[in-house]
Amino acid sequence: MTRGTIKTWYLVHKWTSLICTAFLLMLCVTGLPLIFQDEIDGWLNPPAPMATLPAGTPSLSLDAILKRAAAPAPGDMPLYISFDDDRPIVYVTTGATADVAPAAMHFLAFDARTGATMPPYVPGVMAFILELHTDMLLGFWAEIFLGVMGLLFFVAIVSGVVLYAPFMAKLDFGTLRRGRSKRLGWLDRHNLLGIVTLAWASVVGVTGTINTFVVPITNIWKANGLAAIAASETRTPLGPNRASVQAALDAVQRKAPDMEPQFIAFPGVVFSSKHHYAVFMKGTTPMTSKLLLPGFVDAATGRLDSVTPMPWYMQAMLLAQPLHFGDYGGLVMKIVWAVFDVLTIVVLGSGLYLWLRRKGGPSEQRVREVVMAGETA
């Protein structure tokens, strides 16, 4: 590799790293507790006890649960129904309109077997940390900005790998040159930990970037596949009397008997059209439970219009979300994710330290350091 090429890659690595480091440090620090979000939430907000009933007690109809959900806020309309993964609880989200802001929504929980009202989830410290991690409490454009920082982070990783080869040309892997300057020692640690965390940092950086583009990706799906489904049949205008939600779920479940419901989106909300109940089914294994199969039922007539797999870009988004936090392999995988998160914090912090303790010469001097580093063991 020529000196000019090394200089170019050095500048790319330097500036992409400097621009994104502060934001990546924030994401790594806030992401660390989020890896254990379920465990921390369970500790801070233990689940309320449920009635003890005989095994196999059937669940109530979703229509009956919706009637109970309408009582606290008579002017609201149902927006979503979702199902607890571990307990027989049905969650109902309502709002004044289909496009109501999340802050104005009402969240209700019911025992699926008895219809008894359960204490709703109360957002606590983990919800605050998640929002800080997602958009720094600043909304949609801040989320997109963090996505751009994720892209810069990935470029910094690639450029760091390119520079690693000439740097380590005459050094054994993992060499830490002792007895030299403190800055040189941190340079060796920075390079070693950067390579050790390479795969993990790349995966988390890319999946994190994908997660920031959930809204645009979903809008592409709505404008293409979902719009085609909505336009495929003649529509009966929606009135106050709509088709049974339980019948809609049953119709989709007959098409996917080996799957179970994840959530139901009502007409007009983000994940549905203006005419459909969108019933999202999931698999029953750790991997397939992250992939959703939507079925669309005409909310006026109860006609099943389509059960169509989501396109590849939506599936990639669905897989990216849990992979970003290591939510696939149970507690062991979460611990591994946490260890790599801490190591990445050290990489980012050491990179910042190396820049602050730079010798002050032009970039050519730093390029010379990279070229000559492998010649001094």
From TrEMBL:
Asked whether the UniProt record includes Signal among its keywords, one would answer no
Q: Which organism is it from?
A: Sphingomonas aurantiaca
**Could you list the residue ranges that cross the membrane?**
12-36, 148-171, 192-214, 335-356
Q: Name one Pfam family in it.
A: PepSY_TM
Q: Which InterPro entries match?
A: PepSY-ass_TM
- What protein am I looking at? Putative iron-regulated membrane protein
Q: Which domain of life is it from?
A: Bacteria
User: Which PANTHER family does the record associate with it?
Assistant: BLL7967 PROTEIN (PTHR34219:SF3), IRON-REGULATED INNER MEMBRANE PROTEIN-RELATED (PTHR34219)
Alphabetically ordered keywords of this record = Membrane, Transmembrane, Transmembrane helix
